[in-house]
Amino acid sequence: MQEKNDRIKEIYYELLDFYGPQGWWPGETRLEVIVGAILTQNVSWKNVEKSIINLKKEGLLNINSLLNIEDEKLYTLIKSSGYFRQKAKRLKDFLRFINDNYGRIEEMINDRNIREKILNVKGIGKETADSILLYALDLPFFVVDTYTLRIFKRMGLIEDINLKSYEEIRIMVENSLDRNVKDLKEFHALLVEHGKKYCKKEPLCDKCPINKKCRKNI
DNA sequence: AGCCAGGACTGAG
DNA sequence: CTCAGTCATGGC
Description:
Helix content: 55-70%
Number of domains: 2
Radius of gyration: 18 Å
Structural class: mainly alpha
CATH superfamily of the largest domain: Hypothetical protein, domain 2
Number of helices: 11
Mean pLDDT: 94
Distance between the termini: 24 Å
Strand content: under 5%
CATH architecture of the largest domain: Orthogonal Bundle
Shape: globular
């Protein structure tokens, strides 16, 4: 176990050394991070950028405006992010959750059970929840995504990919990086960057600069 | 022309 | 609980 922790920290510094700091999350405000986190579900970030720009251009990137906007109008603004009907609802549901229970986004930071409560909002799964906690609220949670699972599996750090391995990895990484928010932010960003370049589903990479003995078994 | 992208929910078995 | 089906656009 301690062995895995050391290996994880090692991987983090190798990636950091190779790619350099990524400076995530790309977003100017906490709300923008939250909106981006929901919109980027199973969609490339490029698609989301357009939606964010649309919202900004219309001056709608604030909780009140987004809560009161017509569904049809929201659809057209976020259409590029795909699943626009679902995502419009998820956005509103989550903003309503904030409004009703906290009023301001900052108030969520002090809630001891914030992860649990966020996960209870429909449309917010583990990855989206942890993205919001880490990048919008600056809380020490690690974000596990498909790249992370794939990379860690090819590294030989986990056997299977399922919801249990998600929690396993999340806890391991949080411990390995001493719950340091800056490092947790950077590590996830680096894994995404590395995933896009060298650890995609297809084709299987045979010249990974980080993982010399890649298992390529997914 | 498919396949995949910074997922999550639902219903079936 | 595991898992296919569903949701949808854009880029390569």
